[in-house]
Amino acid sequence: MHNNKYLKENPNQPLLAYHFIQALTRINLAAHTTSTKQRSHIIKHAAYVSMAFAAGNKRTWTHAVLHNRFPIKTRFHRLSGSRRSFIVSLSRNKETLHQAHLLRSLVPGGHAMEFSSLLMETANYIQYLTAQVRLMQCIVEKFDMHV
Amino acid sequence: MSSSIRREVSSDWDPLLAMDHNMNFIGSSGFPPFIAGVVNSSNDDGRNDQVPSLSCFGLVDSPEFPSVADNVKGKKRKGITDFGASHSRSPVTKSQQKIDEKKPKNDNADAKKEDYIHVRAKRGQATNSHSLAERVRREKISERMRLLQDLVPGCNKLTGKAMMLDEIINYVQSLQRQVEFLSMKLAAVNPEVNFDVEQILSKDILQSQDGGNSAALGFGQAMTIPHQQFHGLMQTEMGICNMPSSGGMLRLNNPEISQMAQIPTNVWDQDLQNLVPMGFIGNPPIESKEMNGSMKAEL
After folding, report:
1. The organism sits in which domain of life (chain B) (predicted)?
2. What is the average pLDDT value for chain B, to the nearest integer?
3. Closest-CA residue in chain A for B201?
């Protein structure tokens, strides 16, 4: 049986923090020219990019984030109609079909995968999302403590 | 008897007439094999010594037929099992299997089990190649759902694909909403606040991140960083990334931090693809339960 399990690596937390904080400092340097709303958008974008960068280009979702700007413009790579319908036809239950479609819209690049690899990508994505959220919470706490 | 034989051989010899007259005369090479075989079968008198020779002469083709048929069936059998055993390939071959279904179904299940190395059809289950591949796929999916179950908190009690998928979707949505909320908070922070917070860091308990450091050092060769600007940044980063961890801690060595600060980097301007081939070193697992607690505190 071929290796259908990715190596379940833990997210590289220092790498994540390094890039994200670097982005934050750069964003803050230009803070006087941008509005708060704009900055929150840019920071969110920076969070996803640093997350994808820390995960590496091996994953489908990181590829979708880095090259298609997934969470911001919501423009991700769509399958051609024939292949998508083919993948859809494999799942017979209507409820699971709906759920799978929802999951695909959540995970970047999800529409281009079939269901089992979608699940693997989701696992990896969740790992890095939790790491990113934890990092951002720590930064926010630092600011609260500092001020 | 012999006189009558000689008489017919010498004259113009019509094989059919000769056959009528000499039903027992089966040694002639002039006879077509088929007829000889028919004649042979109808005879049951004492010409036993000649019967075997003509039988193989007459039925010269028929022994080959079963072997050919077996080969054809064997090939078909092999073909079907090859398709069925190709579950290791990407499921694009599922389309091939659907076409394969139209082939005559093989009811020789034992031979198929021998050809399969990876999947064994259990007793009482269908051994159609299509359903076998389906079962493999279903097992793969359930295995990955179990993996996901470990990641998503509070999923251990839930069983069943639908509820777990619901839980997973909710979790991913909540994480994404958290990222958005936290980015709003970070944007609202006073931009004049200095990132250099060494005095706060000194109170924190740092965890040894040797693996992570070496990974960062390994990949950092392509990058540049202004040293004085990010030295404090390194301190902050070390503290921040280590804060949520609990358990046995070691103080992070200062030379490592300054070494990281000297790593040149200019990530955002470069093509990130160049930096991809870096080894990932597994960090000690970070518990996610703390996050839930802090989430409640915030929201």
Report:
1. Eukaryota
2. 53
3. A142
A33 has a chain B CB within 8 A of its CB: no
Q: Do B200 and A131 touch (CB under 8 A)?
A: no
Judge whether B202 is closer than 8 Å to chain A, CB to CB.
Answer: no
pTM to 2 decimal places:
0.50
CB A9 within 8 A of CB B282: yes
What type of residue is B102? K
Q: Is the ipTM of this complex over 0.90?
A: no
Q: Residue A126 is nearest to which of B151, B165, B230, comparing CB atoms? A: B151
Interchain contact B68–A (C-beta under 8 A): no
User: Helix %, strand %, coil % for chain A, to 5?
Assistant: 75, 0, 25
Rg (CA), chain B: 41
Residues of B2-27 as b/e, b for ≥16 C-beta within 10 angstroms? Answer: eeeeeeeeeeeeeeeebbeeeeebbe
* Contact assignment for A129 to B172 by CB distance below 8 Å: yes
CA dist., res. B248 & res. B250, Å (int): 7
Angle between helices B254-261 and B227-242 (to 10 degrees): 130
Chain A residue with CA closest to B147: the answer is A123
pLDDT value, residue B195: 55
Residue B152 tokens, joined: 């998503």
DSSP H helix total and E strand total for chain A:
7, 0
pLDDT confidence tier of residue B242, bands split at 50, 70 and 90:
very low
A65 CB within 8 Å of a chain B CB: no
